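>> received
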Amino acid sequence: MDVELRQLRCLVAIVDEGGFTDAALVLGVSQAAVSRNLAALERALGTRLLRRTSREVAPTPTGQRILAHARRVLGAVEELTREAAAGHERLRVGYAWAALGRHTPAFQRRWAAAHPGTDLHLVRVNSPTAGLAEGACELAVVRRPLDDRRFDSVIVGLERRLCAMAADDPSARRRSVRLADLAGRTLLVDRRTGTTTSELWPPDARPATEETQDVDDWLTVIATGRCVGMTAEATGHQYPRPGVVYRPVRDAEPIAVRLGWWRDDPHPATQAAVELLTALYRGD
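>> returned
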């Protein structure tokens, strides 16, 4: 059974316009074409859809049900078409925990000024690809390599690593900490999207770890003093929290901030986003 969209459009137009002649005018086709499409639809479905008299054209009981389905199908196709057309008018940038830290407001404002025809939306998706694989965004800010060959990425900047700890933690009085200061602590990590693993420490001096999958839970536990966390500098800017302080880890390697996209379907504004974010991280 093959049902075509043009057949559904003819059915809806006949009912809405009250006849074949007006339906043909609305659709921009001949009356004969409208009749052929309706007949083909009735054959495909194996039932009569319209009751035709000399005075009116009205749906049969089955036709009423099919008409409702046809409207939903045509509405979904129209929405799909709008979504595809909006690809150039909208740019969704995904991120897992923190977007761009202190650069986030500047990115939003400069983008709006330079690209008024492309709306920018920041979307938080706590997945390894920050929403790319899920189709939630066209670009993604990630802080570890995208190993999936479906994606391309480029480094746009570097961020310091910060240690998050309870405000009354003894180390909170320091201006910075070292990796060795955290070796005896319990480290709260997100293995799916995080940048911190015990491999940052020597094998004989690695901290114990516990797992979380959400930044709010991460901060809530750290505020109790039971665990500490290590994260990208952007997290400290985006998530200030009473009871939690952030201190630089001065001997830890910085974190590379990457912008990723689908290799076979890059958004037209990809290069512009890369250039703007690179300039922001560079301090321009």
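>> The mean pLDDT is 92.
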